[in-house]
Design brief:
Helices cover 56% and strands 9% of the residues. It is of the alpha+beta class and 200 residues long. It has one domain: Glutaredoxin, CATH 3.40.30. A four-stranded mixed sheet has the order 2-1-3-4, sandwiched between helices. A hairpin with a 2-residue loop joins strand 3 (174-177) and strand 4. The two termini are 21 Å apart. Its EC number is 5.99.1.4. The active site is at 13 (nucleophile). It holds the Pfam family DSBA. Belongs to the GST superfamily. NadH family.
Length: 200
């Protein structure tokens, strides 16, 4: 089997949302699996001495315009969230816990959370909101609630973020294909070329 694609994403990243909708389809066309890794962009910003996009002069407004255009280009719905960015620890912990048990269901949850935030303008920062969305997918609410509040899953997420930073991940979406890093949903055409033709 060819090496899988590592896909790093933060649930507050609009470009992460777009990538989450298409990366599995792209990979499947080329016989690749995808390993999904939730991260917390706050840790990356801290490591870089950066700030979230809305606080970046000029670039912040451009990016939100660009995301809407990129969504239209990909044929995906998008609505600018009222609250942006948001803390995403609860969503990331829920994904990690579920991913250990059922990767397909975990990706279903990830996409549902992304759509809730970037299509329906539902603030997914609160644990109860994450649990409501998960329950709507048939995921046991009480079990998930207990899981995301444990010290073990909190440490697990921290470890995931630390590994991501050690691999040079600094944004969302971020992909690693056969050791080659690609940052941004606009790099998907390059990833497709790499998968079909090899390194270039």
């Amino acid at each position: 089997m060819p090496a899988p694609i590592d896909f790093y994403f933060d649930f507050s990243s609009p470009y992460g949302y777009l990538a989450a909708e298409v990366i599995d389809t792209i990979a499947s066309k080329h016989g690749r699996a995808v390993i999904w890794h939730p991260i917390l962009l706050g840790a990356a910003f801290k490591a870089m001495g950066a700030v979230p996009l809305p606080n970046v002069p000029l670039k912040g407004e451009y990016v939100l315009r660009d995301v809407a255009r990129s969504a239209r280009f990909l044929g995906l719905p998008f609505k600018r969230p009222t609250h942006f960015p948001i803390p995403t620890q609860n969503a990331a912990r829920a994904f990690l816990w579920l991913n250990d048990r059922n990767t397909t269901k975990a990706r279903e949850l990830a996409r549902a959370l992304y759509r809730a935030y970037f299509v329906e303008d539902i603030n997914i920062s609160e644990a109860d909101t994450v649990l409501d969305i998960a329950a709507g997918l048939g995921i046991a609410r009480v079990e998930l609630s207990d899981a995301i509040s444990t010290g073990a899953i909190k440490e697990r997420l921290k470890a995931e973020v630390d590994v991501a930073l050690a691999r040079g991940v600094f944004g969302s979406p971020f992909f690693i294909v056969e050791g080659e890093p690609f940052w941004g949903v606009d790099r998907l055409p390059q990833i497709e070329k790499w998968l079909s033709e090899g390194a270039f």
